[in-house]
Specification:
The complex is a heterodimer of chains A (about 290) and B (about 260). With about 290 residues, chain A is mostly helical. Chain A is about 65% helix and about 0% strand. Chain A contains 12 helices and 2 strands, in the order ααααααααααββαα. Chain B has about 260 residues and is mainly alpha-helical. Chain B has a single domain, classed as Ferritin, core subunit, four-helix bundle (Ferritin). In chain B, helix 1 (about 15-40) runs antiparallel to helix 2. Classes of the chains: A mainly alpha (about 290), B mainly alpha (about 260). The interface of A and B includes residues 81 and 180 of A.
Chain lengths: ~290, ~260
């Protein structure tokens, strides 16, 4: 290599060799900004994500269920804390990130703008929403930024526990009385499509993806992760005897994957823009508490 | 005996009933306070304190479970921790009135916890050497978490009392408002005499409590109201403030809507 190799090229070579970038290392400004945006967005999702579940803690139908749910929501607060700390290693203060969340400048996962009218939602969120999050987060344990990757290892352990707890709630409902069964099915009907939206727009409509893949911040495309999630989840629904609300869902033996119907991207973008059923409520709740 | 609004409550207990009654005092205090504290989840003033207060809620509810399991064992006939929590009516709840008072603002919640945690600290400390095995075992486990809770809420009292002018005024108001619910914690009850060889009377820890509460309030530059003021009573006899109905209404709603379901 010549002596005139630019810092950017060196950085790319360093990342390509599967090295971890640490806070004091030189990094392109855009890499830093991308990570701050992504990690803080992830932290905000954990914190806002506490609300739809916290609203059932006082009504949980058994003491055991109450303790598990309370501990789970507390874990989410803990995840938010690690993630804010990971973002702070990039020079962004927590106060600034919180201010951006409250002003609407920073985003969080759109899934938390849907309401939780049913106890079954406590199960479905764990099973589908945490399940979708894990799909993404397992990939992030290998992300190129060291503090983020390490935070993810710990978070993934707890998340997979949450997913099992969620699945357990749904299983108890699915194997319970007819009313409990329909509670589980109704909840699945509402959460299925928003869960698929969690992976973000299709690859050909995802503007930040390519650069993030090159920097190894992201290691799999949105569509790949979404397909993995569907392939993993369909058999779980079958085991429970629940029906996934998609008439076009069927196994494609040629592809070795499930084919599935079309996502309503208009709903996705409207909810992101602030027009979901709970966007205003979530931010107002967050402002009120701080 | 002179008669007031508690004239018709049950005051005679067999020994067996007295032990269960004593367990209900402990279990219902833990349950109702835990339930109230759990409402702070996602509402804490900063993330670290949200996590801390959820911890205390988890401790209270976890302790309530152990106590209800013990009551269920004594009650028999298919009683479970959940049937006791979800299918009992307000007249059968024996918690102190203090724990059912609303969360209010952060200072109100801290004050309620501080008065209760200090009481629990001395009570559970004395239960560690009581003559009832099951309660002794629970107390041994609980004292560790109660020590932490008592320290946490006392630190907050000092921080708010010795903080800004606003925080000082607000926390003094919280103390003044909640004080009338504190006397019930130490009032005498017929079961204490029946159980006096096995379990401590709550009256026995009053002096320790007054001394500690006085010290902490002084550190926070706060004024302790007089323990001689008129105190509210009723909770230990199943006569509650209006708050409890709403707490139970919320807590029991789902379980009671589907009484044949298992969760």
């Amino acid at each position: 290599m010549g002596t005139n190799v630019s810092l950017k090229d060196k950085f790319q070579a360093y990342v390509d060799a599967e090295n971890k970038v640490e806070p004091k290392d030189w990094m392109p400004e855009k890499y830093r900004r991308t990570l701050i945006r992504q990690i803080s967005q992830h932290a905000h999702s954990e914190i806002i994500g506490m609300q739809p579940e916290a609203n059932w803690i006082t009504r949980a139908p058994s003491l055991r269920a109450k303790l598990i749910l309370l501990a789970k929501v507390q874990d989410e607060a803990g995840h938010g804390l690690y993630l804010y700390s990971a973002a702070e290693t990039l020079g962004e203060p927590r106060e600034k990130m919180i201010a951006d969340l409250q002003s609407g400048k920073a985003k969080y996962s759109s899934i938390f703008n849907y309401p939780t009218p049913s106890w079954a939602d406590m199960g479905t969120i764990g099973w589908l929403v945490d399940g979708a999050a894990i799909q993404n987060q397992v990939m992030l344990t290998r992300t190129s930024y060291g503090p983020y990757a390490r935070a993810m290892v710990k978070i993934c352990k707890e998340e997979s526990f949450h997913q099992r707890q969620g699945y357990e709630i749904v299983m108890k409902l699915a194997q319970g009385t007819p009313e409990q069964r329909s509670m589980a099915q109704e909840s699945l009907n509402r959460w299925w499509w928003p869960s698929l939206m969690m992976f973000g727009p299709s690859d050909d409509n995802s503007p930040n993806s390519e650069q993030s893949m090159q920097w190894k911040i992201k290691r799999k495309s949105n569509d790949t992760l979404r397909q993995e999630f569907i392939d993993k989840t369909v058999p779980q629904a079958e085991y429970l005897g629940l029906t996934i609300p998609d008439d076009n869902l069927k196994w494609n033996s040629e592809r070795g994957h499930y084919d599935f119907g079309e996502i309503d991207w208009r709903e996705f973008y409207e909810v992101i823009k602030g027009n979901g059923p709970c966007n205003k409520e979530r931010i107002a709740h967050h402002k009120k508490s701080t | 005996m002179a008669k007031g609004w508690l004239n018709s409550v049950k005051r005679g207990f067999t020994k067996e009933e007295a032990l269960k009654e004593y367990l209900y005092f402990l279990a219902d205090d833990s349950l109702i306070l835990g339930q109230q504290l759990s409402k702070w989840c996602s509402n804490g003033p900063v993330l670290e304190q949200d996590i801390a207060i959820i911890n205390t809620a988890l401790d209270h509810i976890g302790r309530a479970r152990l106590l209800f399991q013990e009551i269920a064992r004594l009650e028999g006939k298919g009683t479970t921790e959940d049937s006791l929590v979800y299918f009992r009516d307000h007249l059968h709840f024996k918690n102190a009135l203090l724990v059912e008072q609303p969360n209010g603002h952060w200072g109100d919640t801290i004050t309620r916890s501080f008065l209760m945690d200090t009481f629990n600290f001395y009570l559970y400390d004395s239960l560690r050497t009581c003559e009832v095995n099951s309660i002794r075992t629970i107390a041994e486990k609980a004292i560790k978490e109660i020590s932490y809770q008592a320290q946490w809420s006392a630190e907050w009292i000092v921080r708010l009392g010795d903080g800004t002018e606003e925080s000082h005024t607000k926390i003094q108001e919280s103390i003044d408002n909640l004080w009338m619910w504190s006397g019930e914690l130490f009032e005498n009850h017929p079961v204490f005499e029946i159980l006096n060889e096995e379990l401590p009377s709550f009256t026995s820890i009053k002096d320790l409590w007054l001394k500690k509460v006085g010290q902490v309030l002084k550190m926070g530059m706060l004024i302790m109201p007089s323990p001689e003021l008129w105190m509210q009573t009723g909770g230990r006899f199943g006569i509650h403030s209006s708050q409890l109905g709403f707490i139970l209404g919320e807590m029991q709603s789902l379980a009671r809507s589907y009484p044949n379901a298992t969760w």
